[in-house]
Design a protein that fits this description.
GO terms for molecular function: glyoxalase III activity. It is a single chain. The protein is an alpha/beta fold. The chain has a single domain, classed as 3-Layer(aba) Sandwich (Rossmann fold), CATH 3.40.50.880. It is built from 5 helices and 5 strands, in the order H-H-E-E-H-H-E-E-E-H. The strands form 2 sheets. The protein has a 3-stranded mixed β-sheet. It has a two-stranded parallel sheet with strand order 2-3. Strand 4 and strand 5 form a beta hairpin. It is globular, with a radius of gyration of 14 Å. 33% of the residues are buried.
Length: 129
């Protein structure tokens, strides 16, 4: 399935996890949209225990959007469930509506319609640095 690679590989990639952890702990913003937040779901901070998304408000592609795409049988897990299993506070709007969630240095967008808003939020955060 095109566009779903993050659910299969990047979410388990130790090198990516280390890079994101280093950036986050250096007070750099982390942004992801649509299925991109899957890459963040299992990242542990430097203490080796705390998940990056634990107790953070996040969003990403929803169950309803997967149903609409007909992809439930082809994907290894539902992103919103994976995020909640990691202790995240998962936010969502109706399918295909724009939603950008900012929690500290973490910026997430629900779907492709949210990409522009995520970019704007990231640019604003970088401008403050």
């Amino acid at each position: 399935i095109q566009g779903y690679g993050l659910l299969f590989d990047l979410s388990e990639n130790a090198t990516a996890h280390k890079l994101v952890t280093a950036a986050y702990e250096s007070q750099k913003p982390i942004a992801a949209v649509c299925h991109g937040p899957a890459a963040l779901a299992k990242i542990k901070l430097a203490d080796g225990e705390t998940l990056l998304i634990a107790d953070k408000e996040v969003t990403g592609f929803t169950r309803e959007e997967e149903v609409a795409m007909g992809t439930l049988e082809a994907i290894p897990y539902l992103l919103e469930e994976r995020m909640m299993e990691g202790g995240a506070i998962y936010r969502k709007k109706a399918a295909w509506k724009e939603l950008v969630v900012v929690d500290g240095l973490l910026i997430t967008g629900q779907n492709p319609q949210s990409a522009h808003g995520v970019g704007k939020a990231l640019a604003a955060m970088l401008k403050k640095e």
